[in-house]
Design a protein that fits this description.
Largest sheet: 8 strands, mixed
Number of helices: 10
CATH superfamily of the largest domain: Alpha/Beta hydrolase fold, catalytic domain
Order of helices and strands: EEEHEHEHEHEEHEHEHEEEHEEHH
Distance between the termini: 28 Å
Helix content: 25-40%
Number of strands: 15
Shape: elongated
Radius of gyration: 28 Å
CATH topology of the largest domain: Rossmann fold
CATH architecture of the largest domain: 3-Layer(aba) Sandwich
Structural class: alpha/beta
Strand content: 25-35%
CATH class of the largest domain: Alpha Beta
Amino acid sequence: MRFKKVSFKNTNGQELSGRLDFPLIGKPKAYVLFAHCFTCSKNLKSVDHISHAFTQQGMAILRFDFTGLGQSKGDFSDTNFSSNLSDLEDAYTFLEEYYEAPQIMVGHSLGGAAVLHVSGALANVRAVATIGAPSTPEHVTHLLDNGRKDLEEKGEADVNIGGRTFKMKKQFLEDLESKERNGVIKNLGKSLLIIHSPQDNIVGIENAQEIYMEAMHPKSFVSLDGADHLMSKEEDAKYAGSIISGWASRYIEVSAKEESPEGEVLTRVGEKGYTTEIISGRHQLIADEPPSVGGDDYGPTPYGYLLSGLGACTAMTLRMYADHKGIDLKEVEVKLTHDKVHKQDGENSESSKGKIDQIKRKIKLTGDLTDEQRKRLIEIADRCPVHKTLEGKPEILTEEVK
């Protein structure tokens, strides 16, 4: 993924740390805003997988640390659910001002409750997805049970949550308990996707049922069967990401794609790595190298595209010829390989010095064809335009442009 570290100020002037992941190629179709779970951070591994799923769908996604968590400034003990809602609105404003207002909101656990509370009032948000979200914010108060007595009697306490100790104040508990639904789910006014595991022992599956029953259509529910609350198994997080990103694609308004003029191909490679963006007309592609030579293997190699071009041109040429001649050609399959061979091994070479490029092409023809038709089709394969270009030793003119 291409990503950028970002930061923005919240309403209280504290700097919040974020990460903005971009699609590997092209401009983002839309922007997504992600809210992480209670006491988590933007760097949770499951969030990586979910973010990757969105970038694979051509969307950019912002994840950030709430006040006092991760790399964000501020004291966590001074925060509460209300401050989380404010941080989320500030993240929305940041995207709207510097990039593009998010059309999709995604929240995990208490972050899911947060996006349900704020999304209804955000004009550009078109769809909302929750993962393991409580139906009411106060549901998470059971996580504070080990320090609840001190919180109520002393006003503050060190509370153990998920094996980590957090200093919390009574106001956090009071704020959670004061937050009622007040119709936020019923009046959401956005398309809603609810993902929840029946085996979630932190936020029970009944919460998903309550959210679903209160929400208005369009609404959907997907069971994340077998997953734990944090989606600690990679396959669970990837599955959740694929479901949400695919669902979200239905609801976004796609920005105009960057296009290259007809007959022109544009390629771009960044500061690091070999992953290369290719724009051919209105089509966007990726080229890369395998890990064995330092690449990330996000797409075919340049030679992979060269062979693909020859193979596609061969198949198209045979299709056109067969259609024109009324030949019963059902299918063409072309397999190609490229190697560097010694000239003495080349079938058409006369010198034994040095090496030459050799492309082997195997063509499988399916259909009710005579021997004569098969022979003629193989002859026609050599007449495909790309084949002629490769054999014609094209002149390549290179110049620097500024």
